[in-house]
Every structure is written in structure tokens, then in C-alpha cells.
């Protein structure tokens, strides 16, 4: 039986989001319906409502979520009703070249639920990142559900579904930060902050946080930064060099997504260091670099998509570390809000006032 639930949608480009009633169908083959317990507010949701991603309005927003599997469709073996799960936006296919080479992080045939959720008048909804979790219940592909320890608070667990995983994974998976490494993180919002935390977890010796906002630098220190640089007033490349014995950092994580910070990341690394690009630029952005610098500097320039995560490997592991008190994921939850508070949360996010606002149900 299809069900009617409350949800937050973006009806038209630029219009404020609204709470409305949507219809969630029963799960089809390979699908699951999840009762959402918490969902974080991410920049990507705002990006959808501003028309920055595509024009398939109306969107059902929300994609950093955790909840309880309510029902599953035919053939689902990954999860069962009652499981506490974190949702991911990349259910891998297992069949493509990347999957078969053992690199499912680069699967190019990820999938979502085939059936559509709708408005009461039958209008089909486009779920943000194939999830749509600012909703009491949502329909996803079963492969988008990863079971984790039910002792974790939903508001905390859900954050692994996007930004926090992107940042942790940028340091741990893509940057491969090791014990004793020096790390610089440029941009310390939710994603960069998580990269700081991941670097600490990995045993980095110096973790240099760079931001233009002193509030973010204070937070970064709480998350594990050992040094801070305000790049509004101080040249970050020089400062990072000075703090790393003149060498540059072993790993530099760029978590802003702008040409000037890409440039800083490029020059702030040790000659044999790794630059990890996790900040997402816009299509019109370009960066000019002397080729001799590109050629002459060794190391690696890597982009990090979703923190190169494998949800089935990373989500349960990170939740375990959190429950053992070894990874303070709760530090990212600035506030919990109700479903009706998403629009105001966008406003606070826009002003840089929060790491994460999380809708709890
Ligand atoms: N130099 C340094 N820091 C900057 C600069 C700059 N020129 N411009 C902005 N920042 C800082 C902001 O002050 C903020 O702390 O970058 C941070 C960005 O953080 P958020 O706005 O919270 O964004 P976040 O969710 O962390 O995402 C950052 O990573 O995954 C991507 O799409 C995401 O491109 C985005 C980036
Ligand atoms: Zn694949
Ligand atoms: Zn997100």
C-alpha cells in the first residue's frame, strides 16, 4: 500500500522550500522503504533548489540520512525490516569495468530506486542524489542502505551519508594520510573539518587548518587541528611551508572548490606530497599554472569523490569508532531542527553559522 508522508520539496527554481505531503510507493524488486529518523542539511540541497544541478523540479530534498528499514521488495538480501541504516547515494552495480576491477568507488552505473515518489496529484518527484530524505519515509534502492550499529544516534550516523564521509575519506582514503604525516586542510567547513578529524585519526603529526573565517578555525582546533592560518590575512602557502620545515605538507586537502584555493593547495604540498581535491568547482572555473611547475613537482594530484568511500566498509567502521569514543562525529551536529526549519537552516548555512543542521523526526 502506497503511503502518504510529510516531506520537504523544492517546487520551482529559487523558490523557498515547502513542507508538503508526498506519496511513497511500496518497494519494488531490489528496493526498500526507510523510515527516516534524521537527515542533515547539505549545500547540495540548496544547490538543487537554486537550479544549480538540473531543472527536474520538483525535487524531494535531503540526502544525509539514517533511519530504520520499514519494508523491502523482492530479492533484497542486503537489509531487512528493522535494520538501522545510513543511506548512500552510490549503490554500485557490481558489473561495470570499475566494479570488476575492484574499484567500485568509480562505478559508473550506480543506481537508485526505479519507482517514483510523487506529489498527491501524481507529479513525479526527483529525489536529491537519488535519496530524498527530508521525508518521514523514503524509497531507495536496497544497495543505498548500509546497516550500522543501532546504538548510534541517528542525527550523527546520517552525516556519514555525505559531507562528513567526503571529508574523512578525502584524508583517509584518497590522501592516504599516515602516521606522522603533515597535513594542511584548506577550507574548514563540514567537509574540511571532517578531513581534519580524519587526519587526526590517521595519526598526522601536524594538521594545519586554513580558512578565511576565524570561527571555522576555532572549530577546526576542536576537531584536531594543531595549527591555524587565516588566509585572509596570511599567505597560506608560505605559512604552511614554514610550519613544515620549509617543505610543504605531505598531504593538502582542498575543501573549498575555488581557483585560488586549488592554486594554494597545488603549491602548499611537499614536492613528493599529495593534493586531494574535494571542493567542487563550478563549470566556468579555470586555473592557469606554469607547466614547468606541474612537471617539476612530483607527488600526486587527486580528486576525491564522496571520499572514495565504500559504504559497506566505511560506514560501520566509522560508527564503531564513534561509539568507542575514538571519533567525535557528534561534533558536526551544530543543531537539530524540525522538518519545517529547512529553509531557515539554508540561511544559517549560507552565512557559515553552522557545520550541520540536522532534521530529526
Ligand atoms: N580560502 C579558505 N577558506 C575559504 C575560502 C577561501 N578563499 N572561501 C571559503 N572558505 C571556507 C569557508 O569559510 C568555509 O569554512 O571554506 C569553508 C567551506 O565550508 P562549507 O561552506 O561548510 O562547505 P562544505 O560543506 O564544507 O563543502 C566544501 O567541499 O564537497 C565539497 O561541494 C562541497 O565544494 C564544497 C566543499
Ligand atoms: Zn559498477
Ligand atoms: Zn551532501
TrEMBL record:
Q: Which PROSITE patterns match?
A: ADH_ZINC
- Keywords, ordered alphabetically: Metal-binding, NAD, Oxidoreductase, Zinc
Which InterPro entries does the record match to this protein? ADH-like_C, ADH-like_N, ADH_Zn_CS, ER, GroES-like_sf, MycoS_dep_FDH, NAD(P)-bd_dom_sf
Which superkingdom, per the lineage?
A: Bacteria
EC number(s) reported in the record: 1.1.1.306
The Enoyl reductase (ER) domain sits at 14-359
Cofactor(s) essential for the protein: Zn(2+)
Among the entry's GO cellular component annotations, what is one?
A: cytosol
BP GO annotations: formaldehyde catabolic process
Kind of enzyme, top EC level?
A: oxidoreductase
Q: Name one GO molecular function term.
A: S-(hydroxymethyl)glutathione dehydrogenase [NAD(P)+] activity
Q: Which family does it belong to?
A: Belongs to the zinc-containing alcohol dehydrogenase family.
Tell me the NCBIfam families matching this sequence.
mycoS_dep_FDH (TIGR03451)
PANTHER family for this protein: ALCOHOL DEHYDROGENASE (PTHR43880), ALCOHOL DEHYDROGENASE CLASS-3 (PTHR43880:SF12)
Recorded protein name is: S-(Hydroxymethyl)mycothiol dehydrogenase
Q: What organism does the record attribute this protein to? A: Streptomyces sp. Y1
Amino acid at each position: 500500500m502506497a503511503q502518504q508522508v510529510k516531506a520537504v520539496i523544492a517546487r520551482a527554481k529559487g523558490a523557498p522550500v515547502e513542507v508538503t505531503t508526498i506519496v511513497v510507493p511500496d518497494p519494488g524488486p531490489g528496493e526498500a522503504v526507510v523510515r527516516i529518523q534524521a537527515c542533515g542539511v547539505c549545500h547540495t540541497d540548496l544547490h538543487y533548489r537554486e537550479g544549480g544541478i538540473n531543472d527536474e523540479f520538483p525535487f524531494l530534498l535531503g540526502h544525509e540520512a539514517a533511519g530504520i528499514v520499514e519494508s523491502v521488495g523482492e530479492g533484497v538480501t542486503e537489509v531487512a525490516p528493522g535494520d538501522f541504516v545510513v543511506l548512500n547515494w552510490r549503490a554500485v552495480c557490481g558489473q561495470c569495468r570499475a566494479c570488476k576491477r575492484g574499484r567500485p568507488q568509480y562505478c559508473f552505473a550506480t543506481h537508485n530506486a526505479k519507482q517514483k515518489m510523487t506529489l498527491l496529484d501524481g507529479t513525479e518527484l526527483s529525489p536529491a542524489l537519488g535519496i530524498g530524505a527530508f521525508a518521514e519515509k523514503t524509497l531507495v534502492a536496497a544497495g543505498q542502505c548500509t546497516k550500522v550499529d543501532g546504538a548510534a544516534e541517528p542525527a550523527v550516523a546520517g552525516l556519514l551519508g555525505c559531507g562528513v564521509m567526503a571529508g574523512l575519506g578525502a584524508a583517509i582514503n584518497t590522501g592516504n594520510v599516515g602516521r606522522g604525516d603533515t597535513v594542511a586542510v584548506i577550507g574548514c567547513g563540514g567537509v574540511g573539518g571532517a578531513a581534519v578529524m580524519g587526519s587526526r585519526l590517521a595519526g598526522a603529526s601536524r594538521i594545519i587548518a586554513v580558512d578565511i573565517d576565524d570561527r571555522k578555525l576555532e572549530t577546526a582546533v576542536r576537531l584536531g587541528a594543531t595549527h591555524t592560518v587565516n588566509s585572509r590575512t596570511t599567505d597560506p602557502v608560505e605559512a604552511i611551508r614554514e610550519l613544515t620545515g620549509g617543505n610543504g605538507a605531505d598531504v593538502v586537502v582542498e575543501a573549498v572548490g575555488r581557483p585560488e584555493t586549488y592554486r594554494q593547495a597545488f603549491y602548499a604540498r611537499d614536492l613528493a606530497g599529495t593534493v586531494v581535491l574535494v571542493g567542487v568547482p563550478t563549470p566556468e572555473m579555470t586555473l592557469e599554472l606554469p607547466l614547468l611547475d606541474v612537471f617539476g613537482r612530483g607527488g600526486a594530484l587527486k580528486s576525491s569523490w564522496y571520499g572514495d568511500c565504500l559504504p559497506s566498509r566505511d560506514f560501520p567502521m566509522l560508527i564503531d569508532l564513534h561509539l568507542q569514543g575514538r571519533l567525535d562525529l557528534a561534533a558536526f551536529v551544530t543543531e537539530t531542527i524540525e522538518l519545517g526549519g529547512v529553509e531557515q537552516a539554508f540561511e544559517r548555512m549560507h552565512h557559515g553559522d553552522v557545520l550541520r543542521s540536522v532534521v530529526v523526526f
